[in-house]
Amino acid sequence: MVGPSRPQIVLFGSSIVQMSFGHGGWGAILSEVYARKADIILRGYYGWNSSRALEVVEKVFPKDAAVQPSLVVVYFGGNDSMAPHSSALGPHVPLTEYVENMKKIARHLQSLSESTRIIFLSCPPVDEAKVRQNQSPYLSEVIRTNELCKSYSDACVELCQELGLQVVDLFSALQKADDWETVCFTDGIHLSAQGSKLVAAEILRVVKEAEWKPSLHWKSMPTEFAEDSPFDLVSADGKTTVNSAEWTYFWEEQWE
């Protein structure tokens, strides 16, 4: 563990989380916005569903850890919502079981500390035509429909309302973009850079609007080693220095 200790923001989920640091991903955006303020920690697992996550949630988030996360962003549901396979194998999880799994995950995270905050991301839509077009010859048919995605998204949002958790309704948020099917996804399922920007914006909006104390909005958090120094850049007058610790103009407007 390197120091000084910073607040931890953990991203826990399936492939949309695992891939969130690549190609302008939303995890990378959060890491940039929270630079010198919080550590963004990735715990993403390609192909996982809520049942698989529930098996390991206590290992990923042990109750006896010396430091507990300040915020956990959780995403499971896309793989759960796939149509069931005739063999009963595969990632599909029945809707009622999915809700129960997510409730158990939430309860565990709530038990970590009184100051650990939680945001759930609901199941996003898919580009059904592209999903069918990209079928792999090495896999059984993958059936993903927006009817199924919506039912799992709605269930996640309803659960969060029941538990008093913050939630980003990705199913609705991504469809607000013009031509969302082609703009938001690379393969009909996984996020493009533009799709990731929308996800990051929604997460930052929720964090800003949440009545958490202390606030976890990036503007409200202290910047590490922000004191003035004679080693700062020299100002135009040639006599003083300019502290660049709070220079955020390059993302100020976009990530307000």
UniProtKB/TrEMBL annotation:
Residues 11-197 form the SGNH hydrolase-type esterase domain. Belongs to the 'GDSL' lipolytic enzyme family. It comes from the Eukaryota. It comes from Microthlaspi erraticum. GO terms for molecular function: hydrolase activity. This is SGNH hydrolase-type esterase domain-containing protein. Keywords: Hydrolase, Lipid degradation, Lipid metabolism. Gene3D superfamilies: SGNH hydrolase (3.40.50.1110). GO terms for biological process: lipid catabolic process. The keyword Lipid metabolism applies.
